[in-house]
Amino acid sequence: EVPEELVEKFSKYLVKDISERLLKSNRKREPALRMSSIGRPCERQLWYSINNPEKEEPLRPENHLKFIYGSIVEELMLFLAELAGHEVKGRQEEQEIEGIKGHRDAIIDGVLVDVKSASSYSFKKFKEGKLSEDDPFGYIPQLLSYLEASQEDRVLEEKDRAAFLVVDKTL
User: Which end of the chain has fewer CB atoms surrounding its CB within 10 Å, N or C?
Assistant: First the structure.
């Protein structure tokens, strides 16, 4: 059975995420270093995105769709975690380290969790524990940044570990 209040909560988060993604797609964002960009392998690209944002190429429509889809999958996974009896707290709360801001995905059962929807190829890296060998998007430094920023949060019970909740979005 699925409790009605859980479905309503899921619907609320889903509408909020999709609405924010659609509204953001039409706005120019203020150039700033964010936790989501920490650890990206190309430091030059990161420098230019902050210091010469006018030269940055706009996101293609298919990338906007990919990010909206990722948000939907993320909300679904957190909903399913709650439905399975896990405690999900601290969703999308803003974190900050030395002026660098970001939004962590959630804390599940006291552990900081970053939710990822991955292609079958990328999912294999997570499944086989090989992300540390091939992390082209800087997921590990991003996760560790959220963990560091969350140290004073009482909801975070596991202060020295974090996890990925990954779903193969194609299968």
Answer: N
- The CA distance from 18 to 126, in Å, is 26
Q: What share of the chain is helix, strand, coil (3-state, %, to 5)?
A: 45, 15, 35
Q: What is the mean pLDDT of residues 67-72?
A: 90
Beta sheet of 162-168, edge-to-edge order: 88-89, 106-108, 111-118, 162-168
Structure tokens given for 1 = 């059975």
Q: Structure pTM? A: 0.86
Place of tokens 């399913």: 80
Is residue 41 predicted with pLDDT exceeding 80?
no
70: helix, strand or coil: helix
> For residues 35 and 100, is the Cβ–Cβ distance under 8 A?
yes
Q: pLDDT > 90: what percent of the chain?
A: 61
Q: Which two tokens stand for residue 116?
A: 């990822």
What the block records as the tokens of 141 is 């430094």
